[in-house]
Amino acid sequence: MSERERETEEADQFETPKQACEALGCGMTFLYQRLASGEIAAFKLGTATRISVASRRAYQRSLPRFGMPDAPKVPMPAQTSEARAERKRRGRPPGSKDTIPRQRRASTKSSTEGPSTPP
Fold this sequence. Notes:
The protein is 39% helix and 9% strand. By secondary structure, it is mainly alpha-helical. The chain has a domain at 8-62: Arc Repressor Mutant, subunit A. The protein has a three-stranded antiparallel β-sheet. Strand 2 and strand 3 (48-52) form a beta hairpin. It is elongated. It starts with a helix and ends in a 29-residue tail after the last helix.
């Protein structure tokens, strides 16, 4: 079967989110994020979600290949030494756990009182 014939056949095929997750090797949350962004096409059939096999395969082909020299470089989040220094200089945001001092547990006995004796 030629590539064109397979693409034509795939255009008429749909799968469930569970099947798409198995094919992609990902979880449901990741898949639904791709659906929400429009990277993978889907539609609702009543309450059921159906995903286009052709769209899912096109998404897979668009992903960079690991270890291939011609793979496009994916920019990583800013983790430069300047960015780390800036975060350190700014400190933690107000209300974060590390900035809230711990309170001591209130004791039922005062330290000035002696041992309690029953009357």
